[in-house]
Amino acid sequence: MADPAVHVEGLVKRFKTTTALAGVDLDVEEGTVFGLLGPNGAGKTTLVRVLATLLAPDAGRAEVFGRDVVKDAAGVRELLGLTGQFAAVDEILTGRENLMMFGRLFDLSAAEARRRANELLERFDLADAADRPARTYSGGMRRRLDLASSLLTRPRVLFLDEPTTGLDPRSRNEIWSVVRELVREGTTLLLTTQYLEEADQLAEQIAVIDHGRVIAQGTGSELKDRVGGQILEVELVSAAERDHARAALAGIGCGDPEPGDRLAQLTLPAPRDGLEMIEEAASALRRAEIGVSDLGLRRPTLDDVFLQLTGAPPSDNGAAAEGATVMGSLIGPARAFAALKRVRLSPRPRGARRRGGGASLRGSFGRPSPTRGW
């Protein structure tokens, strides 16, 4: 394989007594989507922040296209874009004005900023709404505008931190289409997501991170194979018979039946002949006089992988325990304000006097970290 677009080796990051990254190793191949999954507080957002030069690691090293994120932070920023969990656009400005403003902050000329803004508005299907204030945009439109602003200077690698959080299925599919198009054009993407289906749909390689370590890595199919082939799924007529059904099905598979997504559902691994297992399960349930509405085999999902590897289901909010997600497009030789363009600023208590004039980034675990060095 050619040199990776992103190389991480033995990366460690601590916050006082908390170890957010405990020796992470991974390589992201150029021109692919790499999915990073993990439960709350696993270290996903901390890793993205280190790669985006927003945090300095305590040990190990990380490179983006051969440039060290610590020794050559300015060079790394010229290569990457970072789009955070929440679309952060200026609601007063129109979509076109948002893109032109950020283009100028990224040191594009007025003419180039306008040209790139027009190109991206067309590409992201925002041309008809280009001259409307961003406050009138739907959630999906704001997300697309936010992503478009990250592409003004054509980054070689793009970090997407929970890119479709809170979007409806249609808007999510639109973002997925954009991601696939970017990959076809050669952009490398590192994707953190709380939606396992999203990683399954988009990522060629997936790493599962837990307690600051990569505990599994591979394609979606390879990770699913670790669960054990197929899963027998039983849908009962009545949830009240679930315990009775678990007793009847004990010993059919290679493990105890487990509750499914619904109260009336049970699942168990099917490592051997699936048809034989269906027959045995049906006979056992019939003998126990338990009503069944559905009985069948399915392939494991990434949810099943999550449960097996981490002992917990995927979270409803993958970044909550790691503190506020940094948002910003850090591409190009931008000025300090551009570097912080979509970063959530620490709120100042009402009535408090402004001191020092500098914004502060909310670091992992909610603690602010100074912006000096930008």
CATH architecture classification of the largest domain: 3-Layer(aba) Sandwich
Distance between the termini: 34 Å
Classification by helices and strands: alpha/beta
The percent range for helix content is: 25-40%
Mean pLDDT: 78
Report strand order across the widest sheet: 6-7-8-3-9-10
Count up the helices.
Answer: 12
**Biggest sheet layout:** 6 strands, mixed
The ordered H/E elements are: EEEHEEHEHHHEHEHEEHEHEEHEHHEE
Summed up:
With 374 residues, this protein is of the alpha/beta class. It has helices at residues 44-51, 73-77, 95-105, 110-123, 139-149, 169-184, 196-202, 220-225, 242-249, 274-287, 302-310, 336-339, and strands at residues 6-15, 18-28, 33-37, 59-64, 67-68, 80-83, 157-161, 188-192, 205-210, 213-218, 230-236, 258-259, 265-270, 292-298, 360-362, 368-370.
Supply database-style keywords.
single chain, 374 residues, alpha/beta, Rossmann fold, 2 domains, six-stranded mixed beta sheet
How would you describe what is shown here?
- This protein has helices at residues 44-51, 73-77, 95-105, 110-123, 139-149, 169-184, 196-202, 220-225, 242-249, 274-287, 302-310, 336-339, and strands spanning 6-15, 18-28, 33-37, 59-64, 67-68, 80-83, 157-161, 188-192, 205-210, 213-218, 230-236, 258-259, 265-270, 292-298, 360-362, 368-370.
- Strands 6-7-8-3-9-10 form a six-stranded mixed sheet, sandwiched between helices. The chain has a four-stranded antiparallel sheet with strand order 2-1-4-5.
- α6 (169-184) links the parallel β7 and β8.
- The longest helix has 16 residues, at 169-184.
- α3 (95-105) packs across α4 and α5 packs parallel to α6.
- With 374 residues, the protein is an alpha/beta fold.
- Mean pLDDT is 78; it is low at 315-374.
- It folds into two domains: 6-223 and 318-370, Rossmann fold, CATH 3.40.50.300; 228-299, YebC, transcriptional regulation domain (Alpha-Beta Plaits, 2-Layer Sandwich), CATH 3.30.70.
- The protein contains twelve helices and 16 strands.
- It is globular.
